[in-house]
Specification:
The complex is a heterodimer of chains A (179) and B (559).
Chain A: E1 22-30, H1 35-45, E2 52-57, E3 63-71, H2 77-85, E4 90-96, E5 101-112, H3 115-127, E6 131-135, E7 139-146, H4 148-158, E8 163-168, E9 172-175
Antiparallel strand pairs in A: 1-3, 1-4, 2-3, 5-7, 5-8, 5-9, 6-7
Chain B: H1 3-13, E1 18-21, H2 28-34, E2 40-43, H3 47-61, E3 65-69, H4 73-77, H5 79-87, E4 92-98, H6 114-117, E5 124-127, H7 134-146, E6 152-158, H8 188-200, E7 204-208, H9 210-214, H10 218-228, E8 232-234, E9 249-252, H11 259-267, E10 270-274, H12 280-283, E11 294-299, E12 313-316, H13 319-331, H14 341-353, H15 368-379, E13 384-387, H16 391-399, E14 408-409, H17 420-430, E15 436-441, H18 442-445, H19 451-457, E16 463-468, H20 473-482, H21 498-504, E17 508-512, H22 518-527, E18 532-537
Parallel strand pairs in B: 1-2, 1-3, 3-4, 4-6, 5-6, 7-8, 7-10, 8-9, 10-11, 11-12, 13-14, 13-15, 15-16, 16-18, 17-18
Helix pairs in contact in B: 1-2, 1-7, 3-5, 3-17, 8-13, 10-13, 11-14, 15-16, 15-22
The chains are: A alpha+beta (179), B alpha/beta (559).
């Protein structure tokens, strides 16, 4: 049978569909009206859940960057990126490697801060390198930047003090190194 | 010149010779410009039909179809055709009028956000925001619609912008889009691995789909099959790419496919999927689909690979380019064709035991399957056949025996009733020298029957063979088999009188209720000089078999 013996059917394996971890996709798109709607619509139509989403300009005014996170334990990331690539306005997609990526999120927390627990909140803020950006008689607004997990941890520290409102930006990310 | 006039020049430059559409307020400038253009406008009677006609034209000719509609309801009427073209990967450029830019977003008269409405069902869409963009957008639209995996592209043009003065410039070079570069060649290493896997397969099968027809790769598929000697089956959309009279042909696979095709998929050790997408009508219960098989999947759309069924050897590329390479690689290997003997004898046994068959009717009764066989006889098996959706569609797929590509035009993915007549009009306009027959059902035909007016007024001699059983037959069949015979909304009753209806439109009408007359009346319908309809009264309660019940596995076929 010659060379044909080199591929035996029993040795063929299909790739794994689910990665089981969180993915950060960095998507460069043309800066045109409706592009975000195309991306968001694709996710809802295909039943993909976006965990966080951040959109902003890049160094090129014709190009915007969409950074989104989703759960690779329930979504076939390969299928997600291939569907995204079918959108004509999507230029480049990078599935960010966790080790080679700097990812940050920002959050603002409005906490009820009676005089007796104000000191403790300020102390937490220092530990997390967060900043008090607004002070009123009954509440503080704290700004914190960091990884998704760090912000989650900070939130759980503040929550017992009475979390009035919070807002998170969703993660943004860049690859480490020169490329 | 006005942007609308420049658009006509751009369409002419794209080789457009026919446009299907209906005018309205917002696309008046476009229709003003059509008058002097070097192309024919076919005035449909409903925008949905204009869209399907453009699809039928595209299927029959291999070129890109074009449909026009006005804003608001004109545009929303196109939606079904756009969705249909998306599901079946049909290259059509839809151009809609939009309200003036100063009215946009104000809920103006006949305003609808058609770009927003159609976002999930287009390959791409653009809204013109400056008349100067029109030329660029039209050329991009044709490029995107017709290359890679084909599909519908929508260009929405506000009324005032199509009156804007712009300068016309003919297209100089090809369209370049940074975010759109279909991968056509196929990875040579993957192709080599595929050939080697095929050389080692003992129970292989080729599962071909509509992509082979889109890629005009029928000859390449035949060449491959001649070299490898594997059995071949095809999806509904792929019929005709491989000749039904070849010995390797197993018939269609899937829900109403042959047992030989479905059992072969079930027992195969290697499935070579070519331009097919593992739709649920093919796989049945996914977890029990082809449990013994490894998959080679060749498709121009990378997102189809491993979408439903994980591929072991994916090959992204145009099947017209990949198949010759695969054939060459396979031929260069030493193979032993006797390894397939056992497989072929098993398949032949299935074919002998389970041929497509039906109970003969009583005296004079027209069995629907017989009607298809007779249609094959009177057309010489060589007509372009369009169909609607339901039992008649499945019987045509089973019994007509398509031997050539682009002869079978139907709505597979979306399953759009009302598709057949307008698609026939588009096919006939595109291929005037071919016999074009719409084989329809009484539930489907009435959904776009107004297009008989188009056929008569535009002198488009399409023929309609109506398989009339008085029911929404496929739904009735499902209610009988899976809903305890609790019939609901499926009895069409005695209305209309189809002969009078055809005559009212100015078409010829005939009725046949005796099998002995069928051949003669079909022939008379074909011979009539103009559009003609033959109302054939078939067995009302015949069911379409064999069948894989929805959600069941191939080996559990019934009937």
């Amino acid at each position: 049978m010659g060379t044909s013996e080199m591929v035996r059917l029993e040795d063929l394996h299909a790739g794994k569909v689910l990665s089981g971890r969180k993915h950060v996709l960095s998507i460069l798109v043309e800066n045109r009206p409706g592009v975000l709607a195309r991306v968001a619509g694709l996710f809802s139509r295909r039943g993909f859940n976006i965990d966080t989403l951040a959109v902003g300009p890049t160094d090129d005014e014709n190009i915007s960057r969409i950074t989104l996170t989703l759960d690779g334990a329930v979504h076939p990331i390969d299928q997600v990126t291939k569907q995204l690539h079918k959108l004509i306005n999507v230029l480049k997609i990078r599935d960010m490697e966790p080790q080679g990526t700097v990812a940050r999120e920002m959050a603002l927390f409005k906490v009820s801060a009676a005089v007796e627990n104000r000191a403790e909140i300020v102390q937490f803020a220092e530990i997390f390198r967060a900043k008090i950006v607004d002070v009123s008689r009954r509440a503080l607004i704290v700004e914190v930047t960091g990884s998704h997990d760090k912000i989650g941890a900070f939130e759980s520290m503040l929550r017992p003090h009475g979390l009035l409102e919070m807002v998170r930006t969703g993660e943004i990310a860049l690859a480490r190194g020169g490329d | 010149m006005r942007a609308a006039d420049a658009m006509m020049k751009a369409l002419e430059a794209e080789g457009v010779d026919h446009i299907f559409g209906i005018p309205g307020g917002a696309n008046l400038p476009t229709y003003d410009a059509i008058v002097g253009a070097d192309l024919r406008h076919v005035q449909a009677r409903h925008e949905q039909a204009a869209g399907h006609a453009a699809e039928g034209y595209a299927w029959a000719t291999g070129r890109t179809g074009v449909a026009f509609g006005t804003s608001g309801p004109g545009a929303t009427n196109l939606v079904t055709a756009i969705a249909d073209a998306m599901m079946d990967s049909v290259p059509v450029v839809f151009v809609t009028g939009q309200v003036r830019t100063d009215l946009l977003g104000t809920d103006g008269f006949q305003e609808a956000d058609i770009v927003g409405i159609t976002l999930p069902i287009v390959k791409h869409s653009m809204m013109v925001t400056d008349g100067a963009q029109i030329l660029e957008y039209i050329h991009e639209a044709f490029h995107i619609a017709s290359t890679g995996r084909p599909g519908p592209v929508l260009v929405d043009i506000p009324q005032d912008l199509s009156k804007q003065e712009i300068s016309y410039e003919p297209p100089t070079s090809g369209v370049e889009l940074p975010g759109y570069r279909p991968n056509l060649e196929g990875n040579s290493k993957q192709i080599r691995i595929a050939a080697k896997a095929m050389a080692n397969a003992k129970r292989p099968i080729i599962y071909s789909g509509g992509g082979v027809i889109k890629a005009n790769a029928s000859a390449e598929l035949r060449e491959l099959c001649a070299s490898v000697g594997f059995p071949v089956t095809s999806t509904l959309m792929g019929l005709g790419a491989f000749p039904a009279d070849e010995t390797n042909w197993l018939g269609m696979l899937g829900m109403h496919g042959t047992r030989a095709a479905n059992y072969s998929m079930d027992e195969a050790d290697l499935i070579i999927a070519i331009g097919a997408r593992f739709d649920d009508r093919i796989t049945g219960k996914l977890s029990e689909f082809a449990p013994n098989a490894k998959f080679i999947h060749i498709d121009v759309d990378p997102a189809e690979i491993s979408k439903n069924v994980p591929a072991h050897i994916p090959i992204v590329g145009d099947v017209g380019l990949v198949l010759p390479k695969l054939t060459r690689e396979y031929r260069s290997l030493q193979t032993d064709s006797s390894r397939l003997d056992g497989w072929w004898s098993r398949i032949k046994a299935w074919q002998e035991e389970y041929p497509l068959t039906y109970e003969p009717g009583s005296e004079g009764e027209v069995k629907p399957q017989f009607m298809i066989e007779m249609m094959h006889k009177v057309t010489g098996g060589d007509a372009i056949i369009t169909s609607d959706v339901g039992q008649h569609q499945m019987w045509t797929a089973q019994y007509y025996g398509f031997n050539k590509p682009r002869k079978w035009i139907n709505s597979g993915g979306l399953g759009t009733m009302g598709y057949g007549l307008p698609a026939a009009i588009g096919a006939k306009v595109g291929c005037p020298d071919e016999q074009v027959v719409c084989l329809s059902g009484d539930g489907s035909l009435i959904m776009n029957i107004q297009e008989l007016a188009t056929a008569v007024n535009e002198d488009i001699p399409v023929k309609v063979f109506l398989m009339n059983n008085g029911f929404m037959g496929m739904v009735r069949q499902w209610q009988e088999l899976f809903w305890s015979g609790n019939y609901s909304g499926v009895d069409n009753g005695p209305s209309p009188d189809w002969v009078k209806l055809a005559e009212a439109f100015g078409a010829n009408g005939l009725r046949c209720d005796d099998s002995a007359d069928l051949e003669e009346m079909m022939q008379a319908t074909l011979d009539h000089d103009g559009p003609a309809l033959l109302d054939v009264r078939v067995s009302p309660r015949e069911n379409c078999y064999p069948m894989i019940p929805a959600g069941a596995a191939a080996r559990d076929m019934v009937g």
